[in-house]
Design goal:
Blueprint (H helix, E strand, L loop, with lengths): L1 E7 L7 H9 L4 E4 L8 E5 L2 E5 L12 E4 L4 E3 H13 L8 E4 L3 E3 L1 H13 L10 H10 L5 H4 L2 H19 L5 H19 L3 E2 L1 H10 L3 E9 L21 H6 L8 E7 L2 E3 L12 H9 L12 E3 L1 E2 H11 L3 E5 L9 E10 L2 E3 L6 H6 L1 E8 L16 H14 L2 E6 L7 E3 L8
Parallel strand pairs: 1-10, 1-11, 2-5, 2-10, 5-7, 6-8, 7-9, 11-15, 14-16, 15-19
Antiparallel strand pairs: 3-4, 12-13, 16-17, 16-18, 19-20
The structure holds inosinic acid.
The site of inosinic acid (IMP) has 21 residues, from α4 and β10.
């Protein structure tokens, strides 16, 4: 048995899609264990960008199994669209894609409530895909799982009860009877679509492990969006951290063999919330443009900033990351000087550990260290030794600051544009 978790160490959008695509060649199973269609993994398929929201990136390799496990929330319309798009591109998903019977379903009212809560409560800047409200129902024990969805009587009974519970919040936004009619009208089409994919994925994983298969778990979002360890409340409603694999896929902690953190050479975030290293100047604009930093799911421009080692050190610790892949180093190529945040300063106190306090997260000043720009081309370089010396120094300094080794460096969107810094690491 060999398992590897690939996860984001910042606020998501670190380039996990490409990394998972790169490593999927070596894996037998690729597993999504949390989140929903709020995520967007951009891959290059037949020379064009191709975005996957729910289906694991390994689907593009015909012989791999792809699992969406119990920790994920599923918008059936969105899953169907994705499966249809893959089928159109001649990617066969039948008998390769499986959805946990215990995964919770996102229903149309979850999406409406997501929008309402954004206007009422603290504005989080969610993707408005109904993620938070669907997870909230799961925690309230009124959620509808895939297995419930497929039992028509159970489903109808749960919808009736749920709509009574939701009536107050939906009042004035949508007529409950119309909403109910729409849900029941969609039912036949969507349940028929879902049925062949539903399986006991936790058991499938157990069997796969017994057969010594290689399993790759891919997170959506990043550690700073984790419900417990992120910038709460400006987080998503699940646990992208490595620990989330156990509860989100139904495997024991001793079954996790390795954790690979994906880290962008600078920092970005979408949505609201604290972001100490955010740049409002031309460097921020430069990174956004060069890095094409626009949300894969919502198209929103991403906020950009320098590398924040306080954030990544926190991620390294909570996920027990030993190995990192650094992405998008090529996007920093033409900068004259580069800054790295090494600590936060608030009221004359220095913080080296990521603070939980909202006040400190909001008002801390980044303490920067400055380095010269790379002075040379990075794009197209195929080995660490051929990188400009200043780029090599940057990588080594990041390793020192975050406490994990950077074993891979990604210099472009294509799968081949990866440097193996440490050729001795075997991922499975
Ligand atoms: P939600 O997951 O839609 O509830 O959104 C909560 C927060 O997570 C918002 O700040 C979103 O912008 C952010 N978020 C959710 N999914 C992603 C992602 O895949 N990449 C980056 N940010 C995300």
């Amino acid at each position: 048995m060999s398992t590897l978790v690939v996860l984001g160490t910042q606020w998501g959008d670190e380039g996990k899609g490409k990394v998972v695509h790169y490593l999927s060649r070596q894996a037998d199973y690729i597993v999504r264990y949390q989140g929903g269609n709020n995520a967007g993994h951009t891959l290059i398929f037949e020379d064009k960008p191709f975005v996957l929201h729910l289906v694991p990136s390994g689907v593009l390799f015909p012989e791999k199994y792809c699992l969406i496990t119990n920790g994920v929330v599923i918008d059936l319309e969105s899953l169907k669209e994705e499966v249809d798009a893959l089928t159109k591109k001649k990617v066969v998903v039948k008998n390769r894609l499986f959805v946990s019977e215990q995964a919770h379903i996102i229903l149309p009212y979850h999406k409406i409530i997501d929008g309402i809560l954004e206007d009422w409560n603290v504005k989080i800047g969610t993707t408005k895909k109904g993620i938070g409200p669907a997870y909230a129902d799961k925690v309230k024990r009124i959620g509808i799982r895939a297995v419930d969805y497929l039992e028509k009587d159970v489903f109808e009974d749960l919808i009736e009860k749920n709509l009574i519970e939701k009536a107050a919040i939906l009042k004035g936004k949508i007529d409950i009877e119309i909403l109910k009619k729409r849900i029941f009208e969609d039912y036949n089409k969507l349940s028929e679509f879902l049925r062949p994919f539903v399986a006991n994925t936790s058991f499938m994983l157990e069997e796969a492990m017994k057969e010594n298969k290689k399993i790759l778990f891919e997170s959506a979002q990043g550690t700073l969006l984790d419900l417990d360890f992120g910038t709460y409340p400006f987080v998503t409603s699940s646990n992208p951290i490595a620990g989330g694999v156990c509860s989100g896929a139904g495997i024991g902690p001793t079954k996790i063999n390795g954790v690979l953190g994906v880290v962008k050479a600078y920092t970005t975030r979408v949505g609201e919330g604290p972001f100490a290293v955010e740049l409002f100047d031309e460097v921020g604009d430069f990174l956004r443009k060069k890095g094409e930093e626009y949300g894969a799911t919502t198209g929103r421009p991403r906020r950009c900033g320098w590398f924040d080692s306080v954030v990544v050190r926190h991620s390294v610790r909570v996920n027990d990351i030993r190995n990192l892949i650094l992405t998008k180093l090529d996007c920093m190529e033409d900068l004259d000087k580069i800054k790295i945040c090494v600590a936060y300063k608030y009221k004359n106190k220095i913080y080296k550990e990521f603070p939980a306090s909202r006040t400190i997260q909001n008002y801390a000043e980044p303490v920067y260290e400055e380095m010269p720009g790379f002075q040379g081309k990075v794009k197209g370089v195929m080995s660490f030794e051929n990188l400009p010396v200043n780029a090599q120094r940057y990588i080594k300094r990041l390793e020192e600051l975050v406490g994990a080794s950077i074993d891979l460096v990604s210099l472009g969107r294509r799968r081949e544009e990866i440097i193996e810094v440490n050729k001795n690491v075997s991922w499975f």
